[in-house]
Specification:
By secondary structure, the protein is of the alpha/beta class. The chain is built from 7 helices and 5 strands, in the order E-H-E-H-H-E-H-H-E-H-E-H. Bound molecules: flavin mononucleotide.
């Protein structure tokens, strides 16, 4: 059972990464084969809307995103983690999501299958932190992630959203956050296991 864990945070050892590390442990302890990817380490250019992928389902930009396409097909579950930047997902994460337009093209324009039917639905979870306590803080990002998951044949299954967490490492002082993240990882791994 393969779980892909993706951090959209540009901050090394920040709150998102600390939370995701716990989710990784939870999923691994539940028996999953987990890959943890920190997008800050990769070069992923933004989509330039050349629409080349609308013709053949392939992206023409030759950068690190190319190695993520097979991983997004291969995985059985995904946990996406992100801080809130201007009420949304930081550029690193948004570029990653936008570069999944080839999957949209394959699904809706070319009407081809890229995940065999018996592997659908795959499961997905969203973990997020924001510095403020604003109402609706996560609304925009949650909609983006739901749309992303739908395109890549993932059901939005779980979420953990923490407000008022701003300083680096502040999440460590939260009474339950790390435990909840560990449990989410375990849950995603267990519920994604096919009989
Ligand atoms: C460019 C930038 C924009 C931000 N925008 C928001 C925001 O709109 N709302 C909010 O609550 N926090 C905002 N924050 C604060 C971060 O969400 C917060 O520091 C978070 O804990 C960072 O998580 P990380 O340590 O995983 O990177 C912003 C921070 C930066 C650097």
């Amino acid at each position: 059972m393969r779980v892909l864990v993706v951090s959209c945070s540009p901050r090394k050892n920040g709150n998102t990464e600390l939370l995701l590390e716990e989710a990784v442990k939870g999923a691994a302890d539940a028996g999953a084969d987990v890959e943890f990817v920190r997008l800050r380490k990769f070069k992923i250019l933004p989509c330039m809307e050349c629409l080349s992928c609308h013709k053949d389902g392939k992206c023409v930009i030759e950068d690190d995103m190319q190695m993520f396409y097979p991983k997004l097909i291969d995985m059985e579950a995904i946990i996406l983690g992100s801080p809130m930047f201007f009420m949304g997902i930081p550029a690193q994460g948004k570029a990653f999501i936008d570069r999944c337009q080839p999957f949209w093209a394959i699904k809706y324009l070319l009407k081809r299958e890229f995940i065999p039917k018996e592997r659908i639905p795959r499961r997905g979870a969203f973990i997020s932190v924001g510095g403020t306590k604003l109402a609706h803080l996560f609304d925009g990002a949650t909609r983006v992630v739901k749309s992303f998951f739908k395109v890549i044949e993932v059901e939005y299954h779980d979420e953990l959203l923490f407000k008022g967490v701003d300083d680096k490492g502040q999440i460590l002082k939260h009474p339950q956050a790390l435990k909840l993240s560990y449990e989410l990882g375990a849950r995603i791994a267990k519920t994604s296991q096919k009989p």
